[in-house]
Design brief:
The complex is a heterodimer of chains A (219) and B (221). Chain A is an all-alpha fold. Chain A has helices at residues 6-10, 12-45, 49-63, 67-82, 88-113, 117-125, 130-160, 172-183, 186-215. Chain A has one domain (6-215): MetI-like fold (Orthogonal Bundle). Helix content of chain A is 81%, strand content 0%. Chain B has 221 residues and is mainly alpha-helical. Chain B has one domain: MetI-like fold (Orthogonal Bundle). Chain B has nine helices and no strands. Chain B has helices at residues 6-10, 12-46, 49-64, 67-82, 88-113, 117-125, 130-161, 172-183, 186-215. The mean pLDDT of chain B is 93. Classes of the chains: A mainly alpha (219), B mainly alpha (221). Chains A and B meet through helix 4, helix 7 and helix 9 of A and helix 3, helix 4, helix 7, helix 8 and helix 9 of B.
Chain lengths: 219, 221
């Protein structure tokens, strides 16, 4: 058995291009899913039946269906529903955002619920409107409190971006699949892919531990 | 938009065969992950220092590497290294267990370390061995505390079996893709798939939550 690790080095450019797309997908998804999650949480606690029912249905649906299926659904459904043909990258981004928004919605809901009611009441007593009280008093504390959970979600998201390779988005695992097909060096390329994910993900996992240690609340 | 559900009905037995495999793979992965993960978690907490460090490295590595990568590596790369070719189902079971056991290990470690140390000391003072203390004092309380986290792990494991479709395990996701490709009715096929997975996953998480609600008092000390 001979290994040819030079293959990895010769194709490092293609793999690093994949890394760029992976990072872009993770960042862009989080940028959409944090506001999306806050919106869902606000809908859930709004007290308006219709809104909270929609948010609940959305959350339960996307938390109880495999992400890979959501990705396929988005791939086939979006062009039919919107009449537009979105690029695989945009389709993948939408599918990931739907999934992560559902998780963030639950996270923010728990975070907001953990801020004592007397804080809003004190804000009302100072003459703030409910929206002001929420925005100025409750939300900043809730965000701080859910930071460790958001960090864990980030790690999951970073790994889950690999799933959009099934609709040919050119992120790291898709790039590795192509290099593998071109070079026939299966072991070397797949090991390199795993190693690259490890190098990117390991420090992040450690950082999450630190954030948990620093800001996490023991119950 | 016109829907035609006949492709789903025409291929019902083919899809049901996939569903069977999804359930089998889910059950096997969950059981294996819980067993292996519990052993690893206990070793990380009570084992010798070098072993603890090695396990910590394994757990953090699994947190860093996507399950898709573990699956693909186990199926395509491992046979080159070892010469032993695993059929897709077994490769998927090995990969999912290796990945999910790491999460279980963390949960077990957190659960066990949440039981106050005084309890272990008290058990030791009564002449119990570590194993006896674990079995009769620590674990019965810790397991109840771990229930909600186990619930999420079971849900994650079932969802992860769908990713095994990429290494051609003919489970429900894989068969849905096949039927979608053959009939050109992907929307109907995948809509049914969403319903199928939802109907499996939603009750699982609810049952675990319900059980925890009933048993939570047993975990208090």
């Amino acid at each position: 058995m001979t290994f040819d690790w030079l293959v990895v080095w010769n194709n490092i450019g293609a793999l690093l291009d994949g890394v760029k797309v992976t990072i872009f997908l993770a960042v862009a998804t989080m940028a959409i899913a944090v506001p999306g999650g806050i919106l869902l949480a606000v809908m859930r606690i709004s007290g308006i039946r219709v809104l909270s029912a929609i948010a609940t249905a959305f959350t339960e649906l996307f938390r109880n269906v495999p992400l890979i299926l959501v990705i396929y659904m988005a791939y086939y459904e979006l062009p039919v529903m919107s009449g537009l043909s979105a690029s695989p990258l945009v389709t993948g981004l939408i599918a990931l955002s739907l999934n992560v928004s559902a998780y963030n919605g639950e996270t923010f809901r728990a975070g907001i619920a953990s801020i004592r009611k007397s804080q809003s009441e004190a804000a009302y007593a100072l003459g703030m409107s409910p929206w002001q009280a929420f925005r100025i008093v409750v939300l900043p504390q809730a965000i701080k409190r859910v930071l460790p959970v958001l960090a864990s979600t980030w790690i999951s998201l970073f790994k889950d971006t690999s799933l959009v390779s099934v609709i040919s988005v050119g992120e790291l695992s898709y790039a590795a699949t192509r290099v593998r097909a071109q070079t026939f060096r299966v072991l070397e390329v797949l090991t390199a892919m795993a190693a690259i994910y490890w190098v990117l993900g390991y420090p992040q996992a450690k950082l999450v531990d630190w954030i948990n240690h620093r800001w996490g609340r023991a119950e | 938009m016109e829907f035609d559900w006949s492709p789903v009905l025409d291929n019902a037995s083919f899809l049901l065969g996939g569903l069977e495999l999804t359930l089998a793979l889910s059950l096997c992965s969950v059981v294996m992950s819980l067993l292996v993960g519990t052993a690893i978690g206990l070793l990380r907490h009570y084992g010798p220092r070098p072993l603890q460090l090695a396990i910590a490295f394994y757990v953090d590595s699994m947190r860093a590497i996507p399950v898709l990568v573990v699956l693909v590596w186990t199926y395509f790369a491992l046979p080159i290294l070892t010469g032993a070719v695993l059929p897709p189902f077994w490769a998927a079971l090995v990969a999912l267990t290796v990945h999910i056991a790491a999460y279980v290990a963390e949960i077990v470690r957190a659960g066990v370390s949440s039981i106050r140390k005084g309890q272990l000391w008290a058990a030791s003072a009564l002449g119990m061995s570590l194993w006896q203390a674990l079995r009769t004092v620590i674990l019965p309380q810790a397991v109840v505390r771990m229930l909600p986290a186990f619930g999420s792990v079971i849900s994650i494991a079932i969802k992860d079996t769908a990713i095994a479709s990429v290494i051609a395990v003919p489970e429900y996701m894989n068969r849905s893709q096949t039927v979608a490709g053959q009939t050109f009715h992907p929307i109907e096929i995948f809509t049914v798939a969403v319903a199928v997975y939802f109907l499996i996953l939603f009750p699982v998480t609810r049952i675990v939550d319900f059980a925890y609600g009933r048993l939570a008092h047993l975990g208090r000390s």
